[in-house]
């Protein structure tokens, strides 16, 4: 267990490491190796249309199975990858693998689906990001229409820069969605100025939507906003029927969550595609 390994708080090695725990340093080394050895794979979670139950797309989620430490969850290694800059090569690997896989499914004859890939703000801050996306699309020969990039509201710390960057990416023909919507910086008033296709309502509002009037009010407000701006909406983290029913009554049309399916391995996702 990674958590129990390096709780020692003593200062060691170089001054620049002061802030890092031994655990972090070890994990950082492992992460570096894992990127070189490509020890990652992607799982895919279906996005579903409420009225038909049909698949409308899928989200790629990176998985790291460490040979000794076992599965390390993204919430543990993504922040570390961001701090160390390793998110840039890791993120490029994820993007390429996702696009390759999507293209492969299309070539096998499955109906084309939009695949969403998460982009961290650190990747977007990297000067080569637009070029990287362009290159990966060319190399994998995936039609950009079948790629969606999920970004979080944290990029809107600098709204003007975010708007022009997203516009550049969107000009490639790629779709943009705002992940974890409602938890961050975006104010409802400036969403209309941003080149965005979809808002993903954060799972924290869905989790207690059936028990908490404030959550339900926020969800309704997002749905109203999106409708008036002709932006698509999807709810994430739907686990039960009560949540689903409320969302459906409120006019939400798409969702993602354990109620429909957990993230699946590529093999299992392909079976899911076959059953569509
Ligand atoms: P996210 O992009 O908001 O992804 C949704 C997370 O919720 C995923 O966790 C997914 O497995 C989980 N989830 C889906 N449905 C349900 C549900 O009904 N109930 C609950 N409790 N959870 C559900 P995961 O895979 O552990 O990823 C966590 C976060 O790590 C992601 O949040 C995303 O921010 C980040 N992440 C994952 N893969 C990547 C990646 O390839 N690149 C980057 N930059 N970040 C990634
Ligand atoms: Mg996401
Ligand atoms: Mg999310
Ligand atoms: Mg998230």
TrEMBL record:
Residues 24-276 form the EAL domain. Signal peptide: none annotated. This is PAS domain S-box protein. It comes from Pueribacillus theae. The chain holds residues 434 to 709 of 709 of the full protein.
């Amino acid at each position: 267990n990674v958590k129990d390994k390096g709780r020692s708080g003593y200062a060691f090695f170089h001054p620049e490491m002061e802030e890092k725990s031994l655990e972090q340093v070890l994990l950082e080394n492992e992460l570096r190796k894992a990127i070189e050895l490509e020890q990652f794979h992607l799982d895919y979670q279906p996005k579903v249309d409420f009225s038909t139950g049909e698949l409308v797309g899928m989200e790629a989620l990176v998985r790291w199975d460490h040979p000794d430490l076992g599965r390390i969850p993204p919430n543990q290694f993504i922040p570390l990858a961001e701090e160390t800059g390793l998110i840039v090569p890791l993120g490029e690997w994820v993007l390429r693998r996702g696009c390759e896989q999507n293209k492969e499914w299309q070539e096998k004859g499955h109906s084309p689906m939009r695949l969403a890939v998460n982009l961290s703000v650190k990747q977007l801050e990297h000067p080569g990001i637009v070029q990287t996306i362009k290159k990966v699309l060319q190399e994998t020969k995936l039609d950009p229409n079948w790629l969606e990039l999920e970004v979080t509201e944290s990029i809107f710390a600098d709204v003007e820069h975010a708007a022009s960057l997203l516009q550049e990416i969107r000009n490639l023909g790629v779709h943009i969605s705002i992940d974890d919507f409602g938890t961050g910086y975006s104010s409802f008033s400036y969403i209309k100025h941003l080149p965005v296709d979809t808002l993903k309502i954060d799972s924290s509002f869905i989790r207690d939507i059936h028990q908490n009037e404030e959550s339900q009010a926020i969800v309704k407000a997002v749905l109203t906003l999106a409708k008036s701006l002709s932006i698509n909406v999807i709810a994430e983290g739907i686990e039960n029927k009560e949540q689903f029913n409320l969302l459906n009554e409120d006019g939400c049309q798409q969702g993602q969550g354990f109620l429909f399916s957990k993230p699946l391995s590529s093999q299992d996702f392909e079976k899911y595609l076959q059953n569509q």
